Structure formats: C-alpha cells, structure tokens
C-alpha cells in the first residue's frame, strides 16, 4: 500500500477537522410564532428558552426575538424565534417575520374557541404566502386551566344536566382533526407548567429538512433568513442574544 505523503496527510487531517467543524456548527432555523393576542405565545417562548413563566405578562409590541439551541442526533439546531404581536393592528407586519421562515408555531387558547378560528386564518395565510416547505405546528395552550378547574370542581351528572360547562371550549379531538386535515403538527401545551412545550420544538426540529438548509447555506454564505433589529423579549432592547440556559429539547 502506498505511503501517505506528509502533504497528503495534512490535507486529510484538514478535511477531517473541517467536517468536524461543520458537524458542530449550529444549523440556523428561523421560526415564527403567530396567534391571537393573549393566547400565551410569549410565555411559550420564555418557557422554552429560559424555562420560566411570568404571570400577567405585558403584550408584545411588534415582535420579540430570542434564540435557543437544541441538539438533534448529530446536529445542533439554533432556533431563531420571532414572537409576533397578536393585536390586529400589527397584523400587516407579520409577513416581514414569517418570510423565509422554515417553521411556524400557530398558538390558540383552548378556553377560547374564537382563538382557534384566528389560528386557522393564520395557517391559511402561511400556506398561501410563506415558504412552501414551512413546517407548521398548531399548539393549543393553557391546558393547566382545565386541570385546575377539574381539581376545584368535579362536575356531577346533575350539574351537567343543568347546563354547566367546562372551562375548555376547544376539544382535543376537534383541533387534532383539523391539524390532520391540513397537515399540521399538533400539540396541547401549558406555558405555566411546561407541559408539552419542549415537544413542540423537538418535533419541529425532526421535520425540518436540515440537509436542504445546509446545502442552501453553502451555496449562499451568510444566508440565514434573519433580519436586522433584533428585539429582546425581556427588555425590548435592540440587542438579540443567545439563551444562557442549556438545550431545552
């Protein structure tokens, strides 16, 4: 077998080192959160990024930006998360945030049926105007409210006959059937307790065509779908930052 020349060995070592570097380099994935005001979008992001929950959180103005890294098998994914405002007056800004996004989480409140209708309109808009390969997850938030209601009041047959209703207005079956019909991932979550939150981002990560994203980044160096003017969720400073916490996936 021919001996490896020093120059060839150096080239081989360099190539191996480059492959290792590429494997360790995070794959940037732009993700946008959409949904009606007060459904808990910002709380979901805070739970995922910082593993914390804030009562009576102030409404998001415009959009907020956070990042979180997540390891999936041999790759590290860096979610670049745009948390958009739910108020109708900010609706026209949404395309600026979901443009070129590889993923979206559309959030509704399981205790408000109207918020699911709004979520459906967001899904239609994404499917019509966003990246055709975008991965969309539907998240029914605030399941902790139904659990609390069940603990505080066990409905009897007599009370049921008198017309008392559960605090839940959107059944799991209804939302899941809709998600299956239009090809969405589906989850029920609680930003307050953390239930289901990590699963949303983990399953999205599994569905993202990472090899395609890597190929695009090699042909267009520096392209990540990111925009300038990053807004920090907690202090509204134009800073942008990586979370100090560990991977939430």
From TrEMBL:
<feature type="region of interest" description="Disordered">
    <location>
        <begin position="1"/>
        <end position="22"/>
    </location>
</feature>
<dbReference type="InterPro" id="IPR005225">
    <property type="entry name" value="Small_GTP-bd"/>
</dbReference>
<dbReference type="InterPro" id="IPR027417">
    <property type="entry name" value="P-loop_NTPase"/>
</dbReference>
<feature type="region of interest" description="Disordered">
    <location>
        <begin position="219"/>
        <end position="249"/>
    </location>
</feature>
<feature type="region of interest" description="Disordered">
    <location>
        <begin position="148"/>
        <end position="171"/>
    </location>
</feature>
<feature type="compositionally biased region" description="Acidic residues">
    <location>
        <begin position="149"/>
        <end position="161"/>
    </location>
</feature>
<dbReference type="Pfam" id="PF00071">
    <property type="entry name" value="Ras"/>
</dbReference>
<protein>
    <submittedName>
        <fullName>Vacuolar protein sorting-associated protein 21</fullName>
    </submittedName>
</protein>
<keyword id="KW-0547">Nucleotide-binding</keyword>
<dbReference type="InterPro" id="IPR001806">
    <property type="entry name" value="Small_GTPase"/>
</dbReference>
